């Protein structure tokens, strides 16, 4: 069996692991299952127990299949950073295991701050991605894909160097917010906007300069 098919099977099964745990614990779970949380980390959306156990793992397994398909069919897949490709392949599985695991524990009465877990996870993810962004070459499914970065290799490289720095700083700030037990998502949302908007504006400025 080809390595890429093994990766697809393993990551898809990993996405579904929380469903297995949920089925094992099924009789101990409440009938109203929390499936959505507000900005303060409080549940504000519920579903039936069966959907709570199977729904999100199944959705993330489908997302995983789409990610694999997109990366495999990218016309410039030879330019992809192996490290970022690995991160992309395991993005949905890790989300499924961490977030569904936390929700299962929360549903069973564990005192867990959903916001803290989300911020910590996102912060670490931002730092990992930021470290590899400057090494990412032009591709259609990976990196900061703007008209100006895709049209110019120099624009792409400069934009990704800046973005890598911002993502590492933003990730570290997000981890700090998690450790300080900040309960609102609005501050990290502002950090995410800066991480996204600044490289976009910078890329456009380079384009206007002919780069």
Write structural notes for this entry.
With 211 residues, the chain is mostly helical. It has 2 domains: 1-112, no CATH class; 113-211, no CATH class. Helices cover 69% and strands 6% of the residues. The chain has 7 helices and 2 strands, in the order αββαααααα. It has helices spanning 3-24, 49-72, 82-107, 114-132, 147-151, 153-179, 186-208, and strands at 32-37, 43-48. It has a two-stranded antiparallel ribbon with strand order 1-2. Strand 1 (32-37) and strand 2 (43-48) form a beta hairpin. Helix 1 packs antiparallel against helix 2 (49-72) and helix 2 (49-72) runs antiparallel to helix 3. The longest helix has 27 residues, at 153-179. The radius of gyration is 19 Å and the shape is globular. The protein starts with a helix and ends with a helix. The mean pLDDT is 88.
Quick rundown:
This protein has 211 residues and is mainly alpha-helical.
Per-chain topology:
Layout: H1 3-24, E1 32-37, E2 43-48, H2 49-72, H3 82-107, H4 114-132, H5 147-151, H6 153-179, H7 186-208
Antiparallel strand pairs: 1-2
